[in-house]
């Protein structure tokens, strides 16, 4: 008898269990937050071709909008897709969804360590929010060591375009053979004593030499014609309404900047001597109608230390890969100043752009608002800042202050300074 009733209890419990399983299986489809969360997600760090993010609620109003960014080299005539450069141009307010029109053969590029992950994550997020979510340009990451899984996973999840990860070969991140190690070591010790920033650092010197002479010829970079350099912990303060890559290409610009200033002379005491030697040996590389007036106050005899701040750059990779630029880098590298002094890639790039490009091939992006510690470029002109939905403090704009070279750039090029610049001089 006891055994019989225990069997009934077992039957009933079993029936309940089956019902409970049925219930969970049929209702779990509706529990949205759980969906996808447990999806295996193994391929994140390769370079998946991701579906473009769907456009937001306005997609019904403009059904012709592409869901995926047009491919580089697609047969689209730029003239059929004029860019809205000012608020009066059609399409200015259209900041939702994927932008139609041609794409330039271009990429973002970042040199970083694995430990830079959260600082570069912040930069990427801003670049995506203010610009790239509508364009989906690729992003190349370079490192002297292998990138780890976290770095790849986090950056790939933030980038709207394809991501690529490259390891820098040793020859591009080490002392060239002709460098006298003892002499280089003495310089570092001396600079440490004189408290020159990064003066005692070997890796900082490799970084500057790499950015000066090698980033543009890494195998991954050979796939592109234009680059936009992004460093960790930068800010972009305003919406970018048009494609700066297209602007560069269609206006035949080769190098651009947002901030300029005077270089710390202790880091480059003999750089200009090397440059003068190069100019003498290679007159064929010096452009007619160049920007010597930006670099020198005495027609080239001495350097005034003005340079474009290279932690932001949009530029032509074809130009950096040209014979002119590579001969120039080769000449400087032979002279050893990356190690016997502490030459930065900013003056190295700037002097090259100033001497080997025509004036008109350089561009100042007033409308790209930017911060890298400790300087801010906040567009001049209240109207501009409102139109671009900027969140920078105009008082912090460095452009017209005493230590900036941007005024000089305007004067050398006969450009009219933006309205309101006089009130921002201190
Ligand atoms: N892989 C790698 N990247 C580096 C190394 N040193 C610097 N970088 C990167 O090179 C760029 C410039 O280095 P920073 O340390 O930002 O130098 P900086 O901008 O002159 O100085 P900060 O004011 O410190 O930003 C950044 O994108 C760094 O992430 C390094 O040893 N290895
Ligand atoms: C992009 O530029 C690179 C370098 O010049 C070139 O090899 C490649 O074919 C170009 N890609 C397209 C799609 O035009
Ligand atoms: Mg930096």
UniProtKB/TrEMBL annotation:
GO terms for biological process: cell wall mannoprotein biosynthetic process; protein N-linked glycosylation; protein O-linked glycosylation. SUPFAM superfamilies: Nucleotide-diphospho-sugar transferases. It holds the Pfam family Glyco_transf_15. Transmembrane segments: none annotated. Residues 36-76 are annotated as: Disordered. Keywords: Glycosyltransferase, Transferase. GO terms for cellular component: Golgi apparatus; membrane. Belongs to the glycosyltransferase 15 family. This is Glycolipid 2-alpha-mannosyltransferase. The lineage of its organism: Eukaryota, Fungi, Dikarya, Ascomycota, Pezizomycotina.
């Amino acid at each position: 008898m006891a055994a019989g009733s225990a069997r009934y209890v077992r039957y009933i419990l079993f029936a309940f269990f089956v019902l409970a399983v049925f219930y969970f299986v049929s209702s779990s489809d509706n529990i949205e937050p759980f969906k996808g969360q447990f999806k295996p997600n193994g391929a994140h760090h390769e370079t998946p071709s991701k579906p473009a993010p769907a456009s937001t609620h306005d997609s019904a109003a403009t059904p012709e909008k592409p869901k995926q960014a047009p491919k580089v080299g697609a047969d689209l005539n730029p003239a059929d897709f004029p860019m809205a450069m000012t608020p009066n141009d059609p399409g200015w307010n259209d900041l939702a969804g994927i932008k139609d029109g041609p794409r330039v053969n271009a990429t973002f590029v970042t040199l970083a360590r694995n430990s830079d992950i959260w600082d570069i994550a912040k930069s990427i997020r801003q670049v995506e929010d203010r610009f790239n979510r509508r364009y989906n340009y690729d992003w190349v990451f370079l490192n002297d060591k292998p990138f780890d899984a976290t770095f790849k996973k986090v950056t790939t999840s933030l980038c709207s375009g394809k991501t690529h990860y490259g390891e820098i070969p040793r020859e591009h991140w080490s002392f060239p053979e002709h460098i006298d190690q003892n002499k280089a070591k003495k310089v570092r010790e001396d600079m440490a004593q004189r408290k020159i920033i990064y003066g005692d650092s070997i890796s900082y010197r490799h970084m500057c030499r790499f950015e000066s002479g090698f980033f543009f010829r890494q195998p991954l970079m050979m796939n592109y014609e234009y680059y936009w350099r992004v460093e960790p912990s930068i800010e972009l303060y305003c919406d970018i309404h048009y494609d700066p890559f297209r602007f560069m290409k269609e206006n035949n610009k080769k190098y651009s900047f947002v901030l300029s200033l005077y270089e710390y002379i202790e880091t480059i005491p003999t750089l200009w001597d090397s440059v003068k030697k190069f100019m003498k040996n290679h007159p064929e590389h010096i452009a007619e109608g160049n920007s010597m007036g930006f670099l020198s106050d005495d027609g080239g005899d001495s350097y005034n230390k003005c340079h474009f701040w290279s932690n932001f750059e949009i530029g032509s990779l074809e130009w950096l890969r040209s014979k002119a630029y590579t001969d120039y880098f080769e000449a400087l590298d032979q002279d050893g100043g990356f190690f016997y002094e502490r030459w930065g890639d900013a003056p190295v790039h700037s002097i090259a752009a100033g001497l080997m490009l025509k004036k008109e091939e350089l561009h100042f992006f007033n409308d790209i608002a930017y911060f890298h510690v400790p300087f801010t470029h906040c567009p001049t002109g209240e109207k501009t800042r409102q139109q671009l939905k900027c969140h920078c403090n105009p008082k912090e704009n460095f452009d017209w202050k005493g230590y900036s070279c941007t005024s000089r750039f305007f004067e050398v090029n006969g450009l009219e300074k933006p309205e309101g610049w006089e009130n921002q001089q201190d």
